[in-house]
Design brief:
The protein is built from 5 helices and 6 strands, in the order H-E-E-H-H-E-H-E-H-E-E. The chain has 155 residues and is α+β, with helices and mostly antiparallel strands.
Amino acid sequence: MNTNQDKIKKEILNLTKALGFDCDLIIKEHDGTLIANLVAEQPGLLIGRDGETLFALQQIARLIIGKKEIFESRSLILDINNYRQKRLDEIEKEAKESVREVLSTKIDKPLPPMNSVERMIVHKIIGKHEELSGESEGEGLNRRIVIKYKNHEQL
């Protein structure tokens, strides 16, 4: 681990310790982005509902690291017990199942609200099927994708 990663690790662990959590931290680099994965005994408290606390912790960590000029703060992703990857795998699985359902039934299907990264994954999956389209609806935390069968009006 290089000196900057050591400093980042120290700052993130100081943050979680100040919040009353004793965690380990594993940092990996992927395409210029640092992925800092906290390993915690009570991950649910740090992740929060739908990852809201995790997102807030990531923002705080980015601010601290950016202010101390340790690393370009936007290039840091904070994860807890691989929650983000597990969530993305779930989104991908749900999207593929929903695509199969719409192709089979030809009935439009709204998906649950998702953040922008999750919606991007769903749009990529929908884009592989020319007979389908995906439309985002709603605002903010209620933004969702509706998978639509393109030839719906011909039925």
